[in-house]
Amino acid sequence: MKILVVGSGGREHALAWKLANDSMQPELYCAPGNAGTAELGLNVNLAVTDLGGLCDWCHVERPDLVVIGPEAPLCAGLTDRLEADGLRVFGPNRAAAELEGSKEFAKEVMAAAGVPTSAYESFTDADAACAYVRERGAPIVVKADGLAAGKGVRVAETVEQAEEAIRDALEANAFGSAGGRVVIEDFLVGEEASILALIDGEHIVLLASSQDHKRIFEKDEGPNTGGMGAYSPASIVNEVVREKVIREVYEPMLAELKKRGITYKGVLYAGLMIQDDQPAVVEFNCRFGDPETQAVLARWDGDMLPALEAVVDGTLSNDLIHWKSEPSACVVMVAGGYPGTYAKGLPIGNIALANEVQDTVVFHAGTALVDEEVVTAGGRVLGITSTGEDLEDALSKAYIAVETISYRDAFYRNDIGHRELRRMKDGS
Ligand code: GLY
Predict the structure, then answer these.
(1) What mean pLDDT is reported for the chain?
(2) What is the pTM of this model?
(3) I want to staple 330 with a disulfide (CB 3.0 to 4.6 A). Which of 116, 138, 362, 385 is the partner?
C-alpha cells in the first residue's frame, strides 16, 4: 500500500511515524517532508502550495491514500482535484475547509447551528470596525478573515490595540487578501483546550483531548507562536464537556453544513474555551493541530490507518480507535528569535541520542538534510514527545531528551503542562 502525506511540519512527521508503524507497513511518501520523514519513506520535492505538481505526481504514482496535513492545500481545493482524478484522500474538500479558510463563514455557520461561541461582527471598512470596537469595549479579539499562517489573530487588551489591529489588516494590508475583511469577536473567558474529531460525513469520533501553549514565553507571556508544546489528555475536557462538545458543537455543525450541501470528511479541530464545564468554540481548523497531533498520536493504541480509511469510506466507528492510558507531552524546540526573525541551516546534534530516551520520539518540524547532516530549516524545529506513567513522568522524559539535543540558540519553554500540573497538585 502506497501513502502520500502532504506537508513538512511536526504534525506530518507524527502522521508519517504513526502510519510507518502500521501493521499494513505502507510505502510512505511525504511532500515535501523534512529530515524526520526522510527516515520513514521518500520525500518528494513538491511544495504544499504546488497543487499542479502534487496532482501530476499523484496522477502518475497512484498512491492508495493521500493524507493532507496543512490548511493551505485543503482550502485551495487539493482534495477536490485529487478526488476528481479517482484518488482516495483524507482531508476535507474546499467547501468544507472554508470553516478554517474564512473566519466569517465559520462564525456564520456556528450562529445558524446554535453552537456556543462569542458574539461577532465582520467588517471590510476600518472606520465602521473601529466604531464597533469602541461600542463593545476591550478586551476584544480581531481576526483576519482568511488564512494568515497563524498570525491573523490579535487579542486586544485595549480599544487602541484593537483599532491598530483593524487598521493593520484593512488599511496597511498586513495579511494581504486574507485581511481584506476582519471578524471582531467578544473575548471569551476560561481555559483553552483542543479537541480533534474524525468525521466521515456522517459519524463523529472525538480523539483524545489536548492543550497547546501558544505564547513564546513561560507563564503564557509574549507573542503568539504556532504552538510551543502540548499534552494529552487535558482534564479540563472532562466527560461532561466531551458530551457537550459532541451534542452542542459537532452534531449541529455537521447538520448545518449538510443543509448547505457540504459534506465534512477528515479531521475537524475545535479550539475551545471552557468555563464551568461549558465549552465555547474559539475557532475551527480543517486539519490536525500542531503540536497537538504529536501528543495525541503518541497515545493512539494500535493502527491508525483503518480509521483514516474509514473516514474516506464513510464507515467510521468508535471501535476503530483506542487510547493508551498513559499521558503524553510534547515540548517544542524553536530557533532563537522565533516567532520573529531567526537563522536557518544550523546543524542539530544528538537527535539519535534523544530518541533513545525511554518512551520518547523526536518529531522533526523545521529541519532539512543538507549533505547528510540534519540542520534547522524553520522556526519550530523539533517536537520532543514522550509518554509516561503520569504527566510529570512524561514531561521529565521529554525534557531529558530536549536537554540532550543541541543547536545554536535553541529555545524552548520549561513549563509545558503547567495548568494540568497545578490541577493535579490542587487535586481539582
Ligand atoms: N496548535 C494550534 C493549531 O494547530 O492551529
Answers:
(1) 97
(2) 0.97
(3) 385
